[in-house]
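DM between two lab members

TW: hey, do you still have the Type I MADS box transcription factor entry open?
JB: yeah, one sec
JB: this one, 165 aa:
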Amino acid sequence: MATKRLRDTRNYSENVRNSILDRRETSLFKKAEELSILCDVEVAIIIFRLGKIQPITWKSTILAQDVLTRYLSFIEVKRLEKLVTHEDYLQKKVDKKEEQISKLEKMNEAKEMEILFNQLVEGKSIDELDAREMKGLLKVFAAKLAKLDERKKELNQPPNPPSNK
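TW: and the structure you got?
JB:
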């Protein structure tokens, strides 16, 4: 069942905020359990609450200390090797989307030029075109000319004689 997302919890009473935090902790612990089972890794969660001396740990305090100690015992370079910050993750997503947008823009440009080429064949005046359209048409003409030359070469080749095997 889907739960409502609360945007701003500052206006709620302390009890309401604590109950929201408790539900989110439970959800986080469930996800950590699934992650540890599916990926066969050790997961530890340590949560520090404001005003509380003892942190909340998952699965147990001893396991959390053990995992944290082993993590901190690695050389810092080795620890940071696979570390992905949220900013890096989002930047990769943005770069990927920009690449997709760029590809779509190029495809759109090619289709526009193809339509424009067909309009010129049907009788549209070339005087109405701007510089961008002229450049695009030159590319279309070059591509069509290359296809024509390739087709000419195919047609001018002598047919292969049948073998007597």
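TW: got it. The mean pLDDT is 85. The CA atoms of residues 113 and 137 lie 6 Å apart.
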